[in-house]
Amino acid sequence: MPLSSVPSAVPSWKPRAETEKGPAEPEPMTGGTLAAAGFTDCGRCRSNNEDCFRVEPALGLLVIADGMGGHAGGEVAARMAVGTVAECVRHPNGRLPDSDRVWPFGFDDTLSVTGNRLRTAFQAAHLRLLEASLLDSDLAGMGTTLVAALAVDGRLTVAWAGDSRLYVVDSRGLRQVTADDSWIAARLRDDPDADRERLLQHPLRNALTNVVGTTSRTNVHVVEVALTPGMTVVLTTDGVHGSLQERHIAHLVSGRPLPADAAADLVAAAIGAGSSDNCTAIVARWSLGEPA
């Protein structure tokens, strides 16, 4: 996926407004148990897999990435970014694994502490990718999309860069929490009435406006969502959501009680629908009570 220089402005995500007859907003959770699993496949048209994911229920952490770059750069970028986020989350107070410095990239007062932890992790991943690409010419220009979700005290903090996605599914249905950092998404935000079919024929249709790595700066978007009993969280790379409509994603996820089965079904459905990319999905569910 090429990176475009078109700027991207992403508004803060807010739950969709409901009508008086619509479903009531679920009550937030104050505790609970996370069950999560992921599945990845290189797909029908690729010999290598530049996607990567990590599921760590003990940390309440979900991470997914879709790498890009010549030679082995995409695989390395995705793996390095996912690993860096997991390392950083394990270290409290914004410290990096190899440093005693607190909040090395500053503290954003508009974000929670958890939001700053993810922001720090993304900036650390960005720096590591840039350093690695300078040291190895085979990795020059490598980058990756990145989405991470961290559950703490009844809230899900979500950070992202790129066009990999996070959805939530609850009693109100499925909705996308992240906003794509892509040329098409930027055009549609600027002009909601633009002809999407024409945009899909544009030479820049696959261009990304923001990723981790590749350029000197990354823009880390952060939002928070209240966790509710029975809520399902779905993370996908564009090999999956680029081939499946949202109603199909919601149907597949709702029809499988086990996250591992739901994630595998999403990937299989995307490949069956003709996806030409690597396909990866994570499905996570929160419930009250202790693990079975």
Give the helices and strands, then pairings.
Layout (H helix, E strand, L loop, with lengths): L32 E9 L9 E6 L4 E8 L4 H18 L22 H23 L7 E10 L2 E7 L3 E6 L2 E4 L6 H8 L5 H4 L12 E2 L7 E6 L5 E5 L1 H4 L4 H9 L4 H14 L6 E9 L5
Antiparallel strand pairs: 1-11, 2-3, 3-4, 4-5, 4-8, 5-9, 6-7, 6-10, 10-11
Helix pairs in contact: 1-2, 6-7
Provide tags for this entry.
292 residues; alpha+beta; Phosphatase 2c, domain 1; six-stranded antiparallel β-sheet; five-stranded antiparallel β-sheet; 7 helices; 11 strands; disordered N terminus
Can you tell me about this structure?
By secondary structure, the chain is of the alpha+beta class. The chain has one domain: PPM-type phosphatase domain (Phosphatase 2c, domain 1, 4-Layer Sandwich), CATH 3.60.40.10. 27% of the residues lie in helices and 25% in strands. The protein has seven helices and eleven strands. It has helices at residues 73-90, 113-135, 183-190, 196-199, 238-241, 246-254, 259-272, and strands at 33-41, 51-56, 61-68, 143-152, 155-161, 165-170, 173-176, 212-213, 221-226, 232-236, 279-287. Strands 2, 3, 4, 5, 8 and 9 form a six-stranded antiparallel sheet that branches. A hairpin with a 2-residue loop joins strand 4 and strand 5. Helix 1 (73-90) runs antiparallel to helix 2 (113-135) and helix 6 runs antiparallel to helix 7. It is globular. It starts with 32 loop residues before the first strand and ends in a 5-residue tail after the last strand.
